[in-house]
Amino acid sequence: MTDQQPRGDVTLDDGDLDPRPVAQTLPGLVPGLGPDGRPRPDAPLVAVTGVTGYVGGRLVPELLAAGYRVRALARHPDRLRGRPWYDDVEVVAADASEPDQARAALEGVAIAYYLIHSLGTGPAFAETDRRTAEVFGTAARDAGVGRMVYLGGLFPEGEELSPHLSSRAEVGDVLLASGVPTTVLRAAVILGSGSASFEMMRYLTERLPAMTVPRWVRNRIQPIAVRDVLRYLVGSASMPAHVSRAFDIGGPEVLTYEQMMQRYAAIAGLPRRLIVPVPVLSPRLSSLWVSLVTPVPGGLARPLVESLVHEVVCDEHDVAEHVPDPPEGLIGFDRAVRLALARVRDAAVTTRWSSAAVRGAPSDPLPSDPDWAGGSLYVDERRVQVDASPAAVWRVVEAVGGERGWYSWSLAWRVRGLLDRVVGGPGLRRGRRDPGRLLVDDAVDFWRVEAIEPGHLLRLRAEMRLPGLAWLELRVEPVGSADDDADARTEPWDGDAWRRAPVVLAQRALFHPHGLAGQLYWWAVTPFHGVVFGGMQRNMARAAEAAERARTDTGRTRVG
């Protein structure tokens, strides 16, 4: 299930949207653009980690607009292809936890943004985060980096913290102790389209008109709009060398979680919610409930819920000495929600909590050799001729999943998604970032886009819990292409062919089993492939043909 659209009676003030880069509210603090509208050749070079994540993916264009040269660090650079800023940055393959790679990637860098965490990857995430921060801090010192900037979590002093908040605090301390001047920004709930915290609040409020909730819903929280977070991140790059410390950052209001849900309901045009706090819901039970009601899976929901057990309110606002508040003030809760809902309504969610490919998720690339030496590779391949143009078929292919579903036996897909959620997988509720357009590394329900060639190929890699690795591949090919050649057409369609029917919709499901369990799994589900995959292919073909007929009929009407 994807992002729900705002209700039709929601008042979303487009005049409230501010499309300007945050740098325009930071005069004198950023280098500024050159005469050609691009960063100057001598502008400071900034390295950004976590560029496939929610904040990192939004920070890169803001830094470019501020006049910085940007080096994007990624373990798998190919996953950044398709980002609108890809051609404007230097992309470097580097794993921040590998000393040699981190050191080389930071050579010549003036400011390094550390936006990495292993939240949701399992019980050892804190150890992984600590080690990665130690390696990165040492590499930054050795490379002569002038400043590091880290976005951590806001937490109360003197309390026993949840594992999540404790780890975020520890990472900040590690970076501050590295010998490199470091800015640690500590934020509570981040309000923005696609953020995990916002999605959790949104779905709980929209789906539950009445709910029993833990007592922590009356704890105080100081949320902050993602636009203000980005503004602080960009502004922190210019802090003087003698400043090396943590800063609390938050919006202009302190609210309880209950108040946030009620105000969200009012903005979204929903009736007032009946919220009854009870003392018996532990963080574990609460996170299980959240994972069932919202798209946020249990592995991510639990640390978020555990963090809400604490009151998270800023103790100081010292950051304003170095990054002054904007003239119009920081963004309040109501405006932040309107901004987020407007982006959801307009399908303009640029990054989402599911954007990041986390460690431990299936990530092996699809073997291109049919006689792959990695072991058994089971294949279910189907082809059907479609009486529609390549463009019409591709639009159906690229829009698969999410609200549109999977075009076959919806009950089977829902049951499979529910079983995956029960065992800790993402299930179907992650949905899609955009209802009609995909980029490499986008999440699509319990799949992730591994490769996309517009007009021709969509390859999805399974992230559901499986005893093996799985892929689903959809291709649009000319009639007459070789049935036994998976790469029969790799060149782009020319202008005439892009409009010409018919074409072939080719579909492959591939599975590399792990051990006996994987072998048994494949043979157990094989009898259902005809219904699930066969039905999916036939119904996608029918949808494309219906769209083609509608387009043709509309064209004839206009001519007549």
From TrEMBL:
A GO MF term: protein-containing complex binding
Entries under InterPro entries matching the protein: ComplexI_NDUFA9_subunit, DUF2867, NAD(P)-bd_dom, NAD(P)-bd_dom_sf
CDD domains given in the database record: SDR_a2 (cd05245)
SUPFAM superfamilies: NAD(P)-binding Rossmann-fold domains
Superkingdom of source: Bacteria
Location of the NAD(P)-binding domain: 50-187
Parts of the chain that traverse the membrane: none
Spans annotated as Disordered: 1-21
Protein name: NAD(P)-dependent oxidoreductase
Species in which this protein is naturally found: Cellulomonas oligotrophica
